[in-house]
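Example 3.2
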Amino acid sequence: DSFKLAINEGCEKQNVQRSIEDGMKTFHIVDKVVCLSSDTYKLLEEVYSVEKDKLAYIPNGLKDSFYILSAADKIKIRAKLHITEDEIVFLYVGRVSKQKGILDMLGAFEKLHERFSNFRLIIVGSIPTGFHQYIPYSIRNKVLLFGAVERELLYELYSISNVGVIASHYEQCSYVGIEMQMFSLPIIASDAFGVKCMFDDANALLYHFDSDDNRTIMNLLDTINVMLCKSTIELCELKKRARIAYECKYNIIRMQEDYNQLLASI
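Structure, written as tokens:
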């Protein structure tokens, strides 16, 4: 089915080799190469041997759309979704595929449910055919599948969620990560290629992405447990630092200024 295809995407050795060769040709004929993460910058410099003066590091940026919902409005929105006021809401946004870490998350939350059941996992993103069979039976009443949603609803979901989770196996510069920082969410993120460039121990909780799926699941589970044990003061500090990271690195004005400087240097 289509979800199995999503799981296997990018795994064909021949396609990967062709992509590398095409990339190398392109990188060496253009004037500048913009890297969205410092990991990509390092990869192009050290593996693809792109000249350093061709490389520029400019992460993505988004216009500030942050707003604060009142406590009463949050309760109303949660009530419409049949989420109680005291439930811990974890939010996943993005393509529903193995590469984005959705199977790692389902495995971790299945194990979490064995000792803690007062949570909901909201999944936002187009749901592939056959995906439901991958949701463990024990947590099916804990998982809310939204599919693709309009921006207004998405921003409401950011506002009512307690924790954002970015479980990707690799990224460039995640717009979801920027939005979660913009909405001042405490974030759990993998330390995978590109993902770790957006977060550090001050503004998120990082877990180790391992080549072994079971170890990755246990690392994510341990980090979820750490987040659940955070005090109100510690959570507020994570939220504040997430917002600061957005304002300093990922706002649209900063990105525009960086591109203006790049164009002026050509």
